[in-house]
Design brief:
The protein is α/β, with parallel strands linked by helices. Helix content is 56%, strand content 10%. It has four domains: 103 residues, GMP Synthetase, Chain A, domain 3 (2-Layer Sandwich), CATH 3.30.300.180; 157 residues, 3-Layer(aba) Sandwich (Rossmann fold); 65 residues, Helicase, Ruva Protein, domain 3, CATH 1.10.8.60; 92 residues, Chromosomal Replication Initiator Protein Dnaa, Chain: A. The structure holds adenosine-5'-diphosphate and magnesium ion (MG). This is Chromosomal replication initiator protein DnaA.
Length: 452
């Protein structure tokens, strides 16, 4: 039987993968297995609030993970109790460090409160491949000649592809190796809440002063200023003051400025006035080097066969890649033997996307059928509403589920421009946030495509 500590570590490792950092630390900090009575696992939680939340939201997942680890687990009970000494010691930590699933996590301890830089992010452990080499080169250029050519530096790309890592590395470089030590890193959300607080407390002037004093300012995930008019105004003036005094400013975003919605035109044109570079998804070789590098740094023992398997199935995010390796490492330790590919498949089944046994033509056909239109109308120029939506959904699915390139999608759909495809993709992505019917339709379509 696996020890309870290892069981719980396994749960944490998987939940950490599934949740945002903030969520994970909110709901899983100070949890643990209190005891086990045959098939029942008693989980310690710090208070009723966390207990109720876990029961409502994560109970099924936790049970599933526990059962995967140990088939004899039948039920979970939640006990409210403090893990006192541990709680004191680890007040500020996220669980990643306590369970040591990732030694990277350990370094979060050392995030510098003055500048929000995390020393774990350096260019030494940043793997460069064709997917990110342009962004990397632009970062080097900024390090060499800050505030001159590439101001702002605007790096965009999907989540988990290394934007934060890269811009933090640049920050660390300035702090440690140059006279421009006064670096500040912040996410646009914290920037916004900082601003709002300063207004509430009637300290807007202090806010302005504070943000203008740095040599290098790095703002992460700038897409979240979308729709926030006051914040954008503040940012606009702030940017100008940096620009005019030749001080470097760096942004990251999940999309290019052109596609950030509800963004003031003047700010958009500032973003576009410097250097815009993207980070795309890593190719197989790069994924392989990233995993190997991580294994080496952490002294994990994972076989080449497994490394190659993971690199081949996890294609979308370096964060997921790391998470998978951590999970595998954890399980290998818990089981005290190498895992079989079959076990790994099971472990990572949520990360595996439908493979291409479904063809692009299937997508067209299924969507056309679903909306009861003739397939050939999709390729025509018509802008009729009943055709536009299915067409956009096809574009969305081809991109989201198949990683098809925008130009290729455009070509497949009657020779449309790739920007049209990007628009469609972004539109559906936005719409599914609020449009429940659309979400249901997509579910049904995916069901038709993949479950047969
Ligand atoms: P993003 O900000 O784009 O969402 P992150 O910078 O947070 O992504 O990267 C996710 C994880 O992947 C981090 O742990 C980071 O260290 C790692 N990572 C990203 N890119 C690379 C790379 N090129 N080489 C090594 N590790 C990377
Ligand atoms: Mg990031």
């Amino acid at each position: 039987m696996i020890e309870t500590k290892q069981l719980w570590d396994g749960v944490l490792a998987e939940m950490e993968l599934e949740l945002s950092k903030a969520n994970f630390s909110t709901w899983f900090r100070n949890t643990g297995i209190a005891k086990r009575e045959e098939g029942t696992i008693f989980i310690n939680v710090p208070n009723t609030f966390v207990r109720d939340w876990l029961i409502n939201k994560y109970h099924k997942n936790i049970l599933r993970i526990l059962r995967n680890l140990d088939q004899e687990v039948r039920a979970i009970e939640y006990l409210i109790s403090k893990i006192e000494s541990r709680e004191e010691k680890t007040k500020d930590l996220t669980f990643a460090k306590q369970i040591n699933v990732s030694n990277l996590g350990l370094n979060d301890l050392y995030i510098n409160k003055e500048n929000n830089l995390n020393p774990k992010y350096t260019l030494d452990n940043f793997i460069v491949g064709s997917f990110n080499e342009v962004a990397y080169a632009a970062a080097l250029a900024v390090m060499k000649e800050p505030g001159v050519k590439y101001n702002p530096l605007f790096i965009y790309g999907g989540t988990g592809l290394g934007k934060t890592h890269l811009i933090q590395s640049v920050g660390n470089y300035f702090k440690n190796h140059t006279i421009r030590k006064n670096v500040f890193y912040i996410t646009s959300e914290t920037f916004a809440s900082d601003y709002i607080n300063s207004v509430i407390n009637k300290k807007a002037n202090l806010f302005k002063e504070k943000y203008r004093k740095y040599d290098v300012l790095i703002i992460d995930d700038i897409q979240f200023v979308s729709g926030k008019i006051k914040i954008q105004e503040e940012l606009f003036h702030l940017f100008n003051s940096y620009y005019e005094t030749g001080k470097q400013i760096i942004f990251s975003s999940d999309k290019p400025p052109k596609f950030i919605s509800n963004l003031e035109e003047r700010l958009r044109s500032r973003f576009e006035g410097g250097m815009i570079v993207d980070i795309s998804k890593p190719d197989y070789e790069s994924r392989l080097s990233i995993i190997k590098n991580k294994i080496k740094n952490n002294n994990y023992s994972i076989t080449d066969e497994v490394v190659e398997y993971v690199a081949s199935i996890i294609q979308d995010s370096i964060r997921e890649l790391e998470g998978a390796i951590n999970t595998i490492h954890c399980q290998t330790q818990a089981k005290n033997r190498n895992l079989t590919i079959q076990e790994i498949k099971l472990l990572l089944k949520n990360s595996i996307k439908p493979q291409k046994s479904v063809s692009i033509n299937d997508v067209m056909k299924v969507v056309a059928d679903f909306y009861s239109i003739e397939e050939k109308i999709l390729y025509e120029k018509t802008r009729r509403k009943e055709v536009v939506k299915p067409r956009q959904i096809i574009m969305y699915l081809l991109r989201e589920d198949f990683d098809t390139s925008y130009p290729y999608i455009g070509q497949k759909l009657g020779g449309r421009d790739h920007t049209t495809v990007i628009h469609a993709y972004e539109k559906i992505k936005r719409d599914i946030i609020n449009d429940k019917i659309l979400v249901q339709e997509l579910e049904q379509i995916r069901g038709l495509l993949y479950n047969t």
